[in-house]
Structure formats: C-alpha cells, structure tokens
C-alpha cells in the first residue's frame, strides 16, 4: 500500500484539491460553505486529486528506465509496482475522475477533465523534452484548476483572469526551473538549453510582468476589492524580487517565484472572502 501512496505523490494531489476549493471560494465567496456548493466543490477537488495522481503515475511509467539510475528508490524501479499495474491504476483514476465530473457536476466539467488528461498524457509522451511547449502545457494544467473550480459552482467568467494569471506566472517559474537545471539537462531541449540564459530571462520577465498586469486588472475591473489589492501587491512585489535576484542566484529566483505564487493563492482567497 505504501508503494501506491508514494507513486501518486499525494502532497501534489492534495495541493490541487485545496486549490480547487480556493477557486470555488473565489467564484462564489462564502456561499461556498452552503451544502450544495460545498458538495460540488468537494467532488471537483476529488476529480483534480485523481487526475494529478494518475498523471504522477504516468510520469513514473514514462521515466521507468531513467529512474533506475536517477531515482532507484521509486516503486517501479524497485519492482514494488509493475509498469502494467501502474498503467491500469492510472487509467482507473482518469476514468473515475471523468465519470464523476460528467455525472455529478456537468458535461462541461467532464470535458475539462478529459482535456486535462489528454494534456497530461501528451506532455509525458511527446512534450516533456520539447522545452517551451512542455512548460506551457504544465502551466495550462495549473490554470485549468481555476476554471474547473468555477465550473463546479457555476461561476466561470471571473475565473478567466485568474486562469491567465496562474498560467503566465507558472510559465515564468517553469522556465526559471529549467535554467536552474541546465547542468543536468544535457539531453533535454529546454528553452534555456536552446536559446541561452539571457533569452530565458527576457521571457521570464515578459510572462511575470504580464501576470502582474492581470493581477492588477482583476482589481481595476471590480472583480475583487481593496483588501485583495493589498494582498496581491505583496505577491507581485515578491514576483519582482524573483526577477531582481535572477542574475545572482537562479535557485533563489525560483524560490521567490514559488513563494509569490503561494501568496497569490492567499490573495485570491482573501479576495473571494472579502
């Protein structure tokens, strides 16, 4: 049993579950805690948990050979779980999540789940080593959580800007991570490996500033109030710090970017409640 817990990497899946609740909270505020919205958002959270878990299993299947060297302690290289059984489990997770979404939420939710599964599988089989397209795929999945949470509680329009903010800032962070990993990415065609650190930094700046712009636009058009503005300015300031320290320490830049994204989630939560 412990091997199955390890292969789904539950911490990532739980974070997706929590992010779904936050997106629903952003959508309808404290109305989330009424019985029906709470049940619907919980079902949506379970769907996200299952998709992320299935995606993590697919990741371990696709990396089975390299993990014999890089991560020999993982369940598949250790022989604790076979590739076949892992594949069956991932398909079960994907099918159950799609059925739950389509039956208990709506057909649009089911379609979003199927789309997310297709992107996940496409990333693992084709996009992982392609650089920027792979970064964009991962960021699209991150942003889709907000759309999905909005669909669950019938509040999609206000989620579009949040989707864009998450998509843009996460893409910046993915590129920073690729710069950080350049020494070990000898056989990967990441954007930094193909175009260099300078071009990568310019792209990070572009995506980060665009994300900041959308975060402020969210206040400007009245989606959230002043309390959100204060909270998101703090997050945006940390994003700017991540840019400022990039030339000195890519690792610190990545850490500040991660912190800024967490603060951004806090700002969304505050905005949804206030």
From TrEMBL:
Enzyme Commission code(s) on record: 2.5.1.-
GO molecular function, a single term: transferase activity, transferring alkyl or aryl (other than methyl) groups
Organism ancestry: unclassified sequences, metagenomes, ecological metagenomes
Keywords: Membrane, Transferase, Transmembrane, Transmembrane helix
Transmembrane segment boundaries: 12-33, 39-61, 82-101, 135-153, 197-217, 223-244, 256-273
Pfam families tied to this protein: UbiA
Principal subcellular localization: membrane
Membrane topology listed for this record: Multi-pass membrane protein
Protein name, UniProt field: UbiA prenyltransferase
Localization annotation: Membrane
Any one annotated GO CC term: membrane
